[in-house]
Amino acid sequence: MIPASSSAPPPLYLRRPAISGAAAFAALLLLAAAYAPWRADCRRTPLHRRRRAAAATRFYSLDLVVREYPHDPDAFTEGLLYGGNDTLFESTGLYNRSAVRKVDLQSGKVLVQQHMDGDMFGEGLTLLGNRLFQVTWLKNAGFIYDRHNFSKRESFTHKMSDGWGLATDGKVLFGSDGTSKLYQLDPNSIEVRKMVTVKYHDKEVPNLNELEYVNGEVWANVWPTDCIVRISPDDGQVVGWIFLHELMQHLLSSSNTNIDVLNGIAWDEEKHRLFVTGKLWPKLYEIKLRPADGPPDGSVEELCPMFWPRNAQYDDPVLTSA
User: Fold this and answer.
1) Strand-strand pairing, 273-278 and 283-292
2) For 170, phi and psi rounded to 5 degrees?
3) pLDDT tens-digit profile of 154-197?
4) Tens digit of pLDDT for each residue in 242-266?
């Protein structure tokens, strides 16, 4: 994590260090190596043992890319949600480039955009009624926008340790701060109503990032992995894992070497459509999931490592972007 500065805003850099295309590809090769013995173990392990291991947790992988949509390759996606009528609301990050925008799903065209002050780093975004709530990185500050007029904006402060992700069930706001904590916030006072620690196999799941509320669960991107964790908001227990490694593999194999991590989940509740994208990704995907066996012992450490292999970019805490 890059330390905050009390003076002038930091120069333009990626929030969590950007993953170079070569490093990401190397990481994917390592993941593929981990994935192969897991598949083999699943075939060797008796079915009744596999069922016991996965009894409390469901595993899913990519079944089908229903459709690819254009996505702004300069959008450092931090918050994403479906806005109805084939539109999306998106919060983008990076200093001097952060914004809240309304996007046409079919074309990827930005329909409306409100730029943020240069010292603000846009983060998670959610919609409750006609109000868009947004948090910011390294600050306890957030903003509320009128969904029909982004220039109508008010600010708030929150008591999470940082602002990473937001979602809502229509009653409360769910928030993440980059740790294993999942908050429930009152949408009127922004006070913390409840906080749970997200755990899997009695271990905390850190780096909870962008959030989405889906059918009674909170889904979270786990930075910097290709995994989405499905969380019970009642007690923080992990009820499922989604493995989406193929999406980044496809982009990298298509010479999209400037992409960053998977981040951005949007759920169309009416039509039951699931959309995902990533930071600086040129595509947004509508996908279908299928059940997967998962590792025999339920372990996901190799498939969802919390940190990429070290590379030269990590040696420089200030990363600039053109």
Assistant:
1) antiparallel
2) 95, -5
3) 999 999 999 999 999 999 999 999 999 999 999 999 999 999 99
4) 999 999 999 999 999 999 999 999 9
